Protein backbone atom coordinates (compact mmCIF):
# COMPACT_ATOMS: atom_id res chain seq x y z
CA UNK A 1 0.00 0.00 0.00
CA UNK A 2 1.43 3.37 -1.01
CA UNK A 3 0.41 6.85 -0.01
CA UNK A 4 1.99 9.75 -1.85
CA UNK A 5 0.84 12.22 0.76
CA UNK A 6 -1.12 15.41 0.27
CA UNK A 7 0.48 18.71 -0.69
CA UNK A 8 0.35 21.08 2.24
CA UNK A 9 1.33 24.70 2.23
CA UNK A 10 0.48 25.99 5.67
CA UNK A 11 -0.25 29.64 6.22
CA UNK A 12 0.83 31.27 9.43
CA UNK A 13 -2.21 33.55 9.15
CA UNK A 14 -4.68 30.65 9.20
CA UNK A 15 -6.57 30.35 12.47
CA UNK A 16 -5.98 27.34 14.68
CA UNK A 17 -9.50 25.97 14.18
CA UNK A 18 -9.36 26.25 10.40
CA UNK A 19 -5.87 24.79 10.27
CA UNK A 20 -6.95 21.87 12.45
CA UNK A 21 -9.95 21.16 10.21
CA UNK A 22 -7.69 21.23 7.16
CA UNK A 23 -5.39 18.65 8.75
CA UNK A 24 -8.38 16.55 9.78
CA UNK A 25 -9.57 16.49 6.17
CA UNK A 26 -6.10 15.45 5.01
CA UNK A 27 -6.11 12.54 7.44
CA UNK A 28 -8.57 10.78 5.10
CA UNK A 29 -7.83 12.80 1.99
CA UNK A 30 -6.51 10.00 -0.21
CA UNK A 31 -7.93 6.66 -1.29
CA UNK A 32 -5.18 4.85 0.59
CA UNK A 33 -5.97 6.66 3.81
CA UNK A 34 -9.68 6.02 3.48
CA UNK A 35 -8.95 2.35 2.89
CA UNK A 36 -6.72 2.32 5.97
CA UNK A 37 -9.53 3.91 7.99
CA UNK A 38 -11.98 1.28 6.74
CA UNK A 39 -9.57 -1.48 7.79
CA UNK A 40 -9.15 0.11 11.22
CA UNK A 41 -12.88 0.33 11.86
CA UNK A 42 -13.51 -3.12 10.43
CA UNK A 43 -11.01 -4.63 12.87
CA UNK A 44 -12.88 -3.12 15.80
CA UNK A 45 -16.24 -4.19 14.41
CA UNK A 46 -15.15 -7.78 13.77
CA UNK A 47 -13.52 -8.10 17.18
CA UNK A 48 -16.61 -6.89 19.04
CA UNK A 49 -19.06 -8.85 16.90
CA UNK A 50 -16.98 -12.01 17.00
CA UNK A 51 -16.72 -12.04 20.78
CA UNK A 52 -20.36 -11.05 21.27
CA UNK A 53 -21.66 -13.76 18.94
CA UNK A 54 -19.11 -16.49 19.49
CA UNK A 55 -17.89 -16.01 23.04
CA UNK A 56 -19.39 -17.51 26.20
CA UNK A 57 -22.48 -15.55 27.38
CA UNK A 58 -20.87 -15.11 30.77
CA UNK A 59 -17.97 -13.21 29.21
CA UNK A 60 -20.16 -10.76 27.32
CA UNK A 61 -19.49 -7.53 29.14
CA UNK A 62 -18.79 -4.08 27.80
CA UNK A 63 -15.24 -4.23 29.12
CA UNK A 64 -14.55 -7.66 27.60
CA UNK A 65 -15.83 -6.52 24.21
CA UNK A 66 -13.96 -3.22 24.33
CA UNK A 67 -10.56 -4.69 25.14
CA UNK A 68 -9.97 -6.59 21.87
CA UNK A 69 -11.88 -4.08 19.73
CA UNK A 70 -10.02 -1.01 20.94
CA UNK A 71 -6.70 -2.85 21.14
CA UNK A 72 -6.83 -4.00 17.52
CA UNK A 73 -7.74 -0.52 16.30
CA UNK A 74 -4.95 1.00 18.38
CA UNK A 75 -2.40 -1.00 16.39
CA UNK A 76 -3.42 0.81 13.18
CA UNK A 77 -4.34 4.27 14.49
CA UNK A 78 -0.68 5.42 14.80
CA UNK A 79 -0.33 5.05 11.02
CA UNK A 80 -2.52 8.13 10.58
CA UNK A 81 -0.36 10.13 12.96
CA UNK A 82 2.72 9.06 11.04
CA UNK A 83 1.20 10.11 7.72
CA UNK A 84 0.11 13.48 9.11
CA UNK A 85 3.61 14.03 10.49
CA UNK A 86 5.02 13.22 7.06
CA UNK A 87 2.66 15.76 5.48
CA UNK A 88 3.96 18.33 7.94
CA UNK A 89 7.60 17.56 7.19
CA UNK A 90 6.95 17.85 3.47
CA UNK A 91 5.14 21.18 3.75
CA UNK A 92 6.68 24.26 2.20
CA UNK A 93 7.47 27.25 4.36
CA UNK A 94 7.15 27.50 8.13
CA UNK A 95 4.99 24.82 9.71
CA UNK A 96 2.96 24.62 12.90
CA UNK A 97 2.73 21.40 14.87
CA UNK A 98 -0.27 22.29 17.04
CA UNK A 99 -2.99 21.89 14.33
CA UNK A 100 -1.56 18.50 13.38
CA UNK A 101 -1.57 17.28 16.98
CA UNK A 102 -5.10 18.56 17.60
CA UNK A 103 -6.40 16.94 14.43
CA UNK A 104 -4.63 13.69 15.27
CA UNK A 105 -6.19 13.70 18.75
CA UNK A 106 -9.68 14.36 17.35
CA UNK A 107 -9.22 11.58 14.81
CA UNK A 108 -8.17 9.16 17.55
CA UNK A 109 -11.16 10.14 19.69
CA UNK A 110 -13.52 9.54 16.76
CA UNK A 111 -12.10 6.05 16.21
CA UNK A 112 -12.45 5.29 19.92
CA UNK A 113 -16.06 6.49 19.97
CA UNK A 114 -16.83 4.27 16.99
CA UNK A 115 -15.49 1.35 19.00
CA UNK A 116 -17.58 2.36 22.02
CA UNK A 117 -20.75 2.45 19.89
CA UNK A 118 -19.96 -0.88 18.26
CA UNK A 119 -19.34 -2.60 21.60
CA UNK A 120 -22.46 -1.08 23.15
CA UNK A 121 -24.55 -2.19 20.19
CA UNK A 122 -23.07 -5.70 20.20
CA UNK A 123 -23.80 -6.07 23.90
CA UNK A 124 -27.34 -4.73 23.49
CA UNK A 125 -28.38 -7.07 20.68
CA UNK A 126 -26.95 -10.22 22.29
CA UNK A 127 -27.76 -12.05 25.49
CA UNK A 128 -25.33 -11.88 28.38
CA UNK A 129 -25.35 -14.00 31.51
CA UNK A 130 -22.73 -11.87 33.23
CA UNK A 131 -23.77 -10.48 36.60
CA UNK A 132 -23.25 -6.86 35.51
CA UNK A 133 -22.43 -6.65 31.77
CA UNK A 134 -22.31 -2.83 31.85
CA UNK A 135 -19.97 -2.59 34.80
CA UNK A 136 -17.39 0.23 34.52
CA UNK A 137 -18.98 1.36 31.23
CA UNK A 138 -18.10 5.01 31.85
CA UNK A 139 -14.49 4.32 32.76
CA UNK A 140 -14.03 1.96 29.82
CA UNK A 141 -15.55 4.48 27.40
CA UNK A 142 -13.21 7.23 28.62
CA UNK A 143 -10.34 4.76 28.69
CA UNK A 144 -11.01 3.83 25.07
CA UNK A 145 -10.48 7.44 24.02
CA UNK A 146 -7.31 7.69 26.10
CA UNK A 147 -5.90 4.47 24.65
CA UNK A 148 -6.38 5.70 21.08
CA UNK A 149 -5.03 9.14 22.01
CA UNK A 150 -1.75 7.74 23.32
CA UNK A 151 -1.46 5.41 20.33
CA UNK A 152 -1.96 8.34 17.96
CA UNK A 153 0.56 10.55 19.77
CA UNK A 154 3.12 7.77 19.59
CA UNK A 155 2.49 7.77 15.85
CA UNK A 156 2.94 11.52 15.40
CA UNK A 157 6.03 11.52 17.59
CA UNK A 158 7.78 8.69 15.79
CA UNK A 159 6.57 10.05 12.46
CA UNK A 160 8.35 13.31 13.18
CA UNK A 161 11.50 11.60 14.42
CA UNK A 162 11.91 8.89 11.76
CA UNK A 163 12.40 9.34 8.03
CA UNK A 164 10.69 6.22 6.75
CA UNK A 165 6.97 5.89 7.56
CA UNK A 166 7.08 2.09 7.34
CA UNK A 167 9.86 1.93 9.94
CA UNK A 168 8.05 4.45 12.14
CA UNK A 169 4.89 2.33 11.97
CA UNK A 170 6.78 -0.82 12.91
CA UNK A 171 8.35 1.09 15.80
CA UNK A 172 4.91 2.03 17.17
CA UNK A 173 4.34 -1.68 17.76
CA UNK A 174 7.81 -3.02 18.46
CA UNK A 175 8.99 -0.34 20.90
CA UNK A 176 6.02 -0.35 23.35
CA UNK A 177 5.45 -4.12 23.27
CA UNK A 178 9.16 -4.91 23.20
CA UNK A 179 9.84 -2.71 26.20
CA UNK A 180 6.86 -4.19 28.05
CA UNK A 181 8.16 -7.72 27.41
CA UNK A 182 11.74 -6.81 28.34
CA UNK A 183 10.73 -5.21 31.62
CA UNK A 184 8.51 -8.17 32.44
CA UNK A 185 11.40 -10.58 31.98
CA UNK A 186 13.42 -8.93 34.75
CA UNK A 187 11.93 -9.21 38.23
CA UNK A 188 13.53 -6.00 39.47
CA UNK A 189 12.19 -3.99 36.53
CA UNK A 190 8.73 -5.56 36.28
CA UNK A 191 6.96 -2.70 38.13
CA UNK A 192 8.19 -0.35 35.39
CA UNK A 193 5.87 -2.13 32.94
CA UNK A 194 3.25 0.32 34.20
CA UNK A 195 5.12 3.00 32.22
CA UNK A 196 4.33 1.34 28.89
CA UNK A 197 1.22 2.02 26.77
CA UNK A 198 0.30 -1.67 26.69
CA UNK A 199 0.09 -1.93 30.47
CA UNK A 200 -1.95 1.26 30.84
CA UNK A 201 -4.31 0.13 28.07
CA UNK A 202 -5.06 -3.10 29.92
CA UNK A 203 -6.17 -1.17 33.01
CA UNK A 204 -8.10 1.48 31.06
CA UNK A 205 -10.04 -1.05 29.00
CA UNK A 206 -10.84 -3.21 32.02
CA UNK A 207 -12.36 -0.21 33.77
CA UNK A 208 -10.48 -1.05 36.96
CA UNK A 209 -8.59 2.19 37.47
CA UNK A 210 -7.27 3.05 40.91
CA UNK A 211 -5.75 6.42 41.79
CA UNK A 212 -2.31 4.89 41.25
CA UNK A 213 -3.33 3.57 37.84
CA UNK A 214 -4.35 7.09 36.80
CA UNK A 215 -0.96 8.39 37.94
CA UNK A 216 0.75 5.69 35.87
CA UNK A 217 -1.37 6.60 32.85
CA UNK A 218 -0.41 10.26 33.20
CA UNK A 219 3.24 9.20 33.27
CA UNK A 220 2.68 7.14 30.10
CA UNK A 221 1.12 10.17 28.41
CA UNK A 222 4.03 12.39 29.40
CA UNK A 223 6.68 9.91 28.25
CA UNK A 224 5.15 8.44 25.11
CA UNK A 225 2.87 11.27 24.06
CA UNK A 226 4.39 14.55 25.19
CA UNK A 227 8.01 13.37 25.24
CA UNK A 228 8.16 11.88 21.74
CA UNK A 229 6.33 14.83 20.21
CA UNK A 230 8.52 17.35 22.03
CA UNK A 231 11.56 15.70 20.46
CA UNK A 232 9.81 15.68 17.10
CA UNK A 233 8.87 19.36 17.48
CA UNK A 234 12.50 20.24 18.19
CA UNK A 235 13.55 18.45 15.01
CA UNK A 236 10.83 20.25 13.06
CA UNK A 237 11.95 23.63 14.41
CA UNK A 238 15.51 22.94 13.30
CA UNK A 239 14.21 22.12 9.84
CA UNK A 240 12.13 25.29 9.72
CA UNK A 241 15.08 27.34 10.94
CA UNK A 242 17.27 25.84 8.26
CA UNK A 243 14.64 26.79 5.68
CA UNK A 244 14.89 23.44 3.92
CA UNK A 245 11.41 22.00 3.33
CA UNK A 246 12.58 19.44 0.82
CA UNK A 247 11.98 15.94 2.25
CA UNK A 248 14.85 13.55 2.61
CA UNK A 249 15.03 10.65 0.23
CA UNK A 250 13.88 8.21 2.88
CA UNK A 251 10.61 10.10 3.31
CA UNK A 252 9.51 9.08 -0.16
CA UNK A 253 9.03 5.49 0.90
CA UNK A 254 5.58 3.85 0.98
CA UNK A 255 3.35 4.48 3.93
CA UNK A 256 2.94 1.82 6.61
CA UNK A 257 0.27 -0.79 6.31
CA UNK A 258 -0.93 -3.68 8.43
Task: Based on the model shown, name its key terms.
single chain; 258 residues; globular; 70% helix; mainly alpha; 8 helices
Give the SSE order as H and E letters: HHHHHHHH
Q: How many structurally independent domains?
A: 1
Instruction: Report the biggest beta sheet as strand number plus sense, adding barrel if it closes.
Output: none
Unreliable stretches (pLDDT < 50, length at least 5) are: 245-258
**What kind of oligomer do you see?**
single chain
| Overall radius of gyration | 19 Å
Shape: globular
Distance between the termini: 9 Å
Number of helices: 8
**Please, what is the average pLDDT?**
89
**Strand composition percent:** under 5%
User: What structural class do the secondary elements suggest?
Assistant: mainly alpha
What is the total tally of β strands? 0
Helix content: 55-70%
Provide an overview of this structure.
- The protein is mainly α and 258 residues long.
- Helix content is 70%, strand content 0%.
- It has one domain.
- The chain is built from eight helices and no strands.
- Helix 2 (31-54) packs antiparallel against helix 3 (62-90).
- The chain is globular.
- The termini are close together.
- 44% of the residues are buried.
Amino acid sequence: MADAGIPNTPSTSTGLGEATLNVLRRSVGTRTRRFLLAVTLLLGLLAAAGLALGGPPGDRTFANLSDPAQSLMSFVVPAFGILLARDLKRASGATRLTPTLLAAALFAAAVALFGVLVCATALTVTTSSAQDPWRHVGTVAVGSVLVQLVAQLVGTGLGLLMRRPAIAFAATIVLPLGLWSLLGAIDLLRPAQALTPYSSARHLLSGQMSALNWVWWLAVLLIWGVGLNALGAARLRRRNHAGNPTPALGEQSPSPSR
